[in-house]
Amino acid sequence: MISALDIYLFDLRGYLILEDAIANDHVKELNAILDNMENLKPGEWYGYVQGHIFLTAKEGLNLQQIYEGGEPFERLIDNPSWIDHVMTFVGGQNSFDSHHGPLFIDENFANIRGPGESIGLHGSPVPWSKRAQFHVQNQEFNCGQINILMALTDIGPDDGPTMVIPGSHKSNFLNPELSSSHIKARDGAVDGATGAIEVHMKAGDALLFVDTISHGSKRITTGKRRTIVYRYGPSWGFFRHGYRPSKGLLDRLTPDRRKIVWPHHKTENSPYLI
Ligand SMILES: O=C(O)CCC(=O)C(=O)O
User: How remote is the CA of residue 148 from the centroid of ligand 1, in Å?
Assistant: First the structure.
């Protein structure tokens, strides 16, 4: 369950570090599956998982739709270490019985980075982004997107740690170090951004953050960094990319996981695909 201290700190800082969020054996299972996929080229498929890059190869290889990668990835969808946090911060915890589900994952991927790779500083409430927004009303959160970034390798100072500017999710002025074009800002790393702190994690830890916090990652000096990111928002959101869950995945998911991947009820004898 989410503690009052976690609520206070998330509101204050815009992120939380969830230590030991994924058990060691589970991390091993995830890594063993990724061993078979990490050499995918952008555009190539491994089952329903696709190799992908964001804007430049410097941001590393993404394996999009990683929740299709097998049961260990399905178990992450409603992992008890974060699901109550995510529901509380997105604000969908009271939606279970309505026609909407409690949440929706609009993007899910593993990311693999090597030496020299990073992602530049991005995210800010200025200019306002409805999708990424941080919002609280009557002591209830209504955030547009809560990211869970899971470390599958230890991520120390030389391993390209994620960096965040604590409290920047509430800033009222544009950070002059953030290019007015977010796309341009993503060309570099966050190294040197004023106020940014490094988030060091052990394999199995997870970083929860609201997408509007200014964030990115430091350049990797040596070694390889593996992370998984699931992005959760309200159930009336939509997929970031053109991917859709496979019928096989929807058929084998538990009802609670299915509601998060595909919030609508199953329609019997439907002429539609799903
Ligand atoms: O890879 C990282 O450390 C940062 C991830 C990120 O920028 C994002 O998920 O939006």
Answer: 10
Q: How far apart are CA 85 and CA 91, in angstroms?
A: 10
* Opening angle at CA 77, ends 72 and 83, nearest 5: 130
Q: Quick one: tokens of 274? A: 């799903």
* Alpha carbon distance 117, 223 (integer Å): 11
**Of 62, 149, 198, which is best to mutate to test ligand 1, by the most ligand atoms within 8 angstroms of its C-beta?**
149
Contact of 150 with 227, CB cutoff 8 Å: yes
Per CATH, which fold does 4-261 belong to?
Jelly Rolls (2.60.120)
- For residues 243 and 50, the answer to whether their CB atoms sit within 8 Å is yes
- Site of tokens 């054996």: 25
Chain segment 223-266, per-residue pLDDT in tens: 899 999 999 999 999 999 999 999 999 999 999 999 999 987 76
3-state secondary structure (DSSP) of residue 245: coil
- Tell me which of 53, 61, 111, 241 to substitute to probe ligand 1's pocket, judged by most ligand atoms within 8 Å of the beta carbon: 111
Q: Which residues line ligand 1 (CB under 6 A)?
A: 111, 119, 147, 149, 162, 215-217, 227, 229
**How many whole angstroms from 162 Cα to the centroid of ligand 1?**
7
Asked if the bond preceding 271 is cis, omega within 30° of 0, the reply is no
Q: Which residue has the higher pLDDT, 32 or 93?
A: 32
